[in-house]
Fold:
Amino acid sequence: MSEYHQQSSAEVMKTLNVTDQGLSDYDVQKRQEVYGYNVLAEGKKTSAFAVFFGQFKDLLVIILIIAAFVSFLLGEVGSTVVIMVVVILNAILGTVQHVKAEQSLDNLKALTSPIAKVMRNNQLIEIASEDLVVGDLLYLEAGDYINADGRLLESHNLHINESSLTGESIAVGKSVDAIKESNVTVADKKNMVYSGSYVTTGRGIVMVTAIGMQTEIGKIANLLDTAKEKKTPLQVSLDHFGEKLALGITLICLAIFVIDLVRGRALVESFMFAVSLAVAAIPEALSSIVTIVLAFGTQKMAKENAIIRKLYAVESLGSVSVICSDKTGTLTENKMVVQEVYVNEKVIPHDQLYTENAVEKDLMLKAILCSDAVERDGKEIGDPTEVALVKLGKQYDFDELLVRDYYPRVAEIPFDSDRKLMSTVNTINQQSIMITKGALDVLLPKIVKIETSKGILNITKQQRQKIEAVNRDFSMKGLRVLAVAYKEVKGHRAIDVRAEKDLIFVGLIAMMDPPRKESEGAVEKCIKAGIKPVMITGDHKITATAIANQIGILNDPSEAIEGHEIEGLSDQQLQEKVNDFSVYARVTPAQKIRIVKAWQEKGHVVAMTGDGVNDGPALKQSDIGVAMGVTGTEVAKDASSMILTDDNFSTIVKAIANGRSIYTNIKNAILFLLSGNAGAIFVVLYATILGLPVPFAPVHLLFINLLTDSLPAIAIGLEPNNKKTMKDKPRNIHAPLLNKAFTTQVVLEGILIAISTTVAFEIGLSTGDTLTASTMAFTTLCLSRLVHGFNSRAKESIFAIGLFSNKYTWLAFLIGFLSLHAVLFIPMLTGVFEVATLSTAQLGFIYSLSVLPFIVNQWYKLLFVRSR
Structure:
């Protein structure tokens, strides 16, 4: 059976067995049994309670809980409390984000009106929208939200804004004519209306053909429910890192436990020492440090018009290798602007018109008179194409209200989507002049003369061909073209469509939604950074390719494809061909998800921008969903990871640069934590193997983990952005955090710290006092790790990136240095932290040994590491 858009109005009524009297109560009851109610079904929701406890399944969180338990066994209640507070806060944050994400369906429901006007039992009545059934005759007028999908039976200048479904902000003129083609996109079904859209002008009668989950918006709700959010690259890396770290720590602690038992140490003592080492080895602060660094990153990005909804998305931005961007409002300005005009038999740029030329002036005045749009105090009211005409006039000091007042309108024939024309009658120089504007293909056959500088002449065949050629040229550039003509209507103040003939051609006005000024530069930055920008739009292919070509996304017309062509490809074929296309036009929500998935299957991290309801599923499916803050629907925002407060593509590029820097900073912070912990482990291993006394008391390890570890790590995470970061290619998300190079660096830097600490420990042991030896080892480990914070700021030498460019590292060092000396010199604290009084000579040894790892590190970086 043919689809509803292919059937005539009479055929649709016959198919659904409905008369112009509407359904009877009996019909409604029977149809509700078959089709159900007009509501969006909700999937099973996970309770907030279950979501909260689900946050504790993460391996790093499990390690933190084990660390807290171990600290409790050691009697360090303070440490246990601190760790558990961090874990619980993280779980609460995760739960809140999940609950917010559940709001998408509620916002979809908000797009429909609770009331519908229908014909039932031969009476026009209002009913609850959920009671609509297939076959209802739905009456629409300006301002109505549409409650169901349907086939248009009557249309009286009906225009519907379908931006929530198609992404295009210009209202669509509707027609009752059948469309014979079967393979037609939602945006091109001019005789259908859809739930979630709304009437801007006119009125109409619709036969309801789909309700609830069978509507286009219902299909989107289903896609939203099935689209799965992916873990960010950092979350994946930290998961793998946590697994390897847990295994490594377990093996080391087990080895030391066995060695101690072999050496004859008591079982309980050996076990507690192994547990102490686990506390030293586990970077308890890692999860909170990553969270703090990401939180600071979100604050910085918010100042640059990018609001991050999901914390871990900050870092994911740095891994993005494909940006799938909407066209309207993101890459373009989301407003129509006149680009060129054809007048007086020549093409003229919009800013080079000459008002002293009578024909050029006449074109601008007649375009303003035959339109209704106004612009006042920066506010634009009216159809975007007419606003463009008004703005053109403003460029040449023609105020639309003054012009219309000077040449008053006495009659009009409103624009009609079937006629594709609008006409007005205005009094100009005591004459009644009918001005007509509209589509050239409709207007040109009605034209008999042409206005030129030589006067009004009969139009020739050559002139017609020239006008058609210019129109084709404009259209190939993606421009929307309006033709303007007129004639005198003596004594005719009341006119009808029969008067629209024997017209005088004045000119063509070509306009478009132009690219944002920043778009071309932002696209160029993306390409240099190894990121592929892709345009996905509901607009026509010609318009999309014209914009994409201007800003550098498209190099060849063969790189553009339309939605109906995608429909003919299997998922495997699309995956194979996805690299070949840079522009996707006239696409549906399901096709957007397929495009995103195809890129992801190729191993790419995909950012997807969008503003409409139709973008919601793809935003959720992508690695980074980016919603528009100005024009975006609540559905799009809820499905996104990031919201742009300026709807600007260039803001995404800035956010990616920030994301790359944040990942580098987090990795450097982890390097700092692990190399310091490795240093402590090597010292303990050294003491254990040689049968020496324990170098650190549990309280020493607690002090190191909570103070000399955390503050420098956070400071490293706040390192300023490297301006050269966008010259690199996106990082490989499959490369593990603990790769060979990273592990080698951790071990080597840990050995340097261990050597300094071991030497200090041996100097202390030479005094014959175990407490002094332990104090010297503890102090050297603390100071060397504090100084090591400067080493970990970047791959390059600290002198290459600026010794004082990160004030936080100096603040962290100062706090750690003063806290350590407070422990050493304040009597009340020396007992608590089990430290001995040190001589000036011993302090001198400690200071010298503490800076040795820094000196070796910086010497190596200056000689062998090239600054980017």
